[in-house]
Amino acid sequence: MPDNDVCVVNARVVTMDDRRTIADSFRFCDGVVVAVGDRESVLRVPGDPEIVDLHGATVLPGLIDAHSHLELLAYAWEIAEDCRAGRVSSVAAIVDVLRDKANKTPAGEWVLGQGEHYQHLKLTEGRYPDRHDLDQVSVNHPVMYRASYHLNVFNSRGLRVLGVDDHTPDAPGGRIERDTDGTATGRTYDMFAALGGPQPPLGALVDGIKRAQQRYLSVGVTALGDILLHTEGLDALLTLEDDLLLRTAVYPKLPTILSKEDITSGRLGAHFATADPARLRLNGIKIFLDGGLTAGAAALHDDYPGQPGYRGELAFTDEEVREIVRIVDDADLQIAMHAIGDRALDQAIDAVEALPEARHGVLRHRIEHAGNMFMTSERVKRLARAGIVPVPQPAFLLTTAPGYVKHLGRDRIGPVMPFRTLIDAGLPVPGNSDAIGITPDQHHPFPAMQAAISRRSQDGAVLDPQEAITVDEAIAMYTRWAAYSLGRENEIGSIEIGKHADFVVTGADPLTAPDLGAITVEATWLGGRKVYSR
Questions:
Q1: Contacts of 129 (CB under 8 A, 6+ apart)
Q2: Alpha-carbon distance 451 to 291, whole Å?
Q3: Which of 209, 252, 207, 249 is nearest to 229 (CA)?
Q4: Can the peptide bond before residue 201 be classed as cis, meaning omega within 30 degrees of 0?
Q5: Is residue 394 helix, strand or coil?
Q6: What is the DSSP code string of 50-68?
Q7: Nearest 5°: phi and psi at 152?
Q8: Which residue(s) pair with 112 in the sheet?
Q9: Which ranges in 182-300 belong to alpha helices (H)?
Q10: In this structure, are residues 421 and 396 in contact, taking their beta carbons and an 8 Å threshold?
Q11: Helix (H/G/I), strand (E/B), else coil: 293
Q12: Residue 239: helix, strand or coil by DSSP?
């Protein structure tokens, strides 16, 4: 007899299968779906099932965040002090918040603060803090304020701890901001890993990730594509394996966590030899081709506004990127390439196109942030021809996308988040958040789905309404298309026979609700077991 034989009845089951079947019942045994249809047909399966009556509630497949950062969410939500715009309105207020934290922190330990993208536009002073501001927090503690993963500011003690002096070189793709006399201002752009920035203790990170995954389950997310940026993040996931609920496909960063030799020798894969691949698996490798636009380090073909001659930074040469893509493809892994600027985007596409044509589309190599902007018709065609999966961030429509327009101008970047164009070109756009804790609900799929439909940002602006998508497409982003981007469409992404019994019970029917952003998650089931109840 199966451990758990359950029949869910009296429901509106949005299966998201190829035919978009709407069923009223389904059944699963030992966490795997064995029947979908009407009540009578699913009850005909031999056995003595437990009956779960949902009284007409809607069921969706478990939602999937194809680009997440568990370690950064643990940092922002559970470890760092909140310095976001909802709490502070000035640099002086950031200093006050962090000073209070320093007064409760043993001398010599790091004081860590979490801000948000483009926060300088929201602060009274119209700028980010610098080392002189953070020196007012403490001279006995190293201090770091993070506006995004790409932009970190340190006080003088923090710079000394990290070994930054007048002669410290910029890392490829990164930059240490300096005064006219060459002294570091404390602001760094895409230098965190290169400088060995502060990491929380492993125990704190493990506990933080445990709590972060509960937040994901509460919004219906059951699976992730998790981008790992530091060895501590990888160690935490491997430590967590028995307590890891979310189905997590990981993409460790090269070179921070691993080397090319780790890939070719199999040393990286050995870390996952004892892991349950249904729960934790090595999916691919992450590389950063450029920095963030929010940090002014995205690699552009043309100069940044007001910065003659400056076009951002590339972390690798074209030849190096082609070699990395070839090595990862030979290892039967996906490459996930961070490419924000148009110059980095072209470098990424070129590298995949350089693979033998027979390899195009086989592993579904990904370009993270492709599809946020710079999507010319020629680039869209090249993505489709090479079988590349673009991974734009629907949640950014609510928050960051208006900043793209203000920063570079609409004529230069083209339509923002052109999902209609990408989908019509045959490109399955995976739902994802790139959440790092900057905004409290960025990890929540339903507001992002609504933004992809309405094209409306949090400030009320409507961005390129011609790129709006349908409700069905918005749900597909976070189910079947996200599963496809992870190479897991035969396991998750729809409610079908043979797939994991991962599903969500919602407070309203997304297919008819006037606002997907207001939909609540009443329960989340993973592998046939209820793991969250509202």
A1: 91, 94, 95, 145, 153, 186
A2: 26
A3: 252
A4: no
A5: helix
A6: EEEE-TT-EEEEPEEEEEE
A7: -125, 140
A8: 144
A9: 192-195, 202-218, 231-240, 260-265, 267-270
A10: no
A11: helix
A12: helix
Local structure of residue 8 (DSSP, 8 states): E
Sheet architecture: strand order including 389-391: 284-288, 334-338, 366-368, 389-391
pLDDT tens-digit readout, 84-142: 988 999 999 999 999 999 999 999 999 999 999 889 989 999 999 999 999 999 999 99
CA–CA dist 103, 30 (Å, integer): 52
Buried b (16+ CB within 10 A) or exposed e, 353-363: ebbeeebbeeb
370: nearest Cα among 306, 407, 421: 421
User: Using the 8-state DSSP alphabet, how is residue 105 labeled?
Assistant: S
1 pLDDT exceeds 60? no
Of all helices (H) and strands (E), which one includes residue 251? strand 247-252
Q: How far apart are CA 311 and CA 304, in angstroms?
A: 6
Class of residue 281 by CB neighbours under 10 A (exposed 0-12, middle 13-18, buried 19+): middle
Q: Give dist(CA 124, CA 82) in Å, integer.
A: 18
The predicted model gives 282-293 an average pLDDT of 94
pLDDT value of residue 2: 62
The separation between the first and the last C-alpha atoms of the chain, rounded to the nearest angstrom, is 31
Instruction: Enumerate residues 6+ apart whose C-beta is below 8 A from 281.
Output: 248, 249, 250, 272, 275
Looking at residue 81, what DSSP letter applies? E
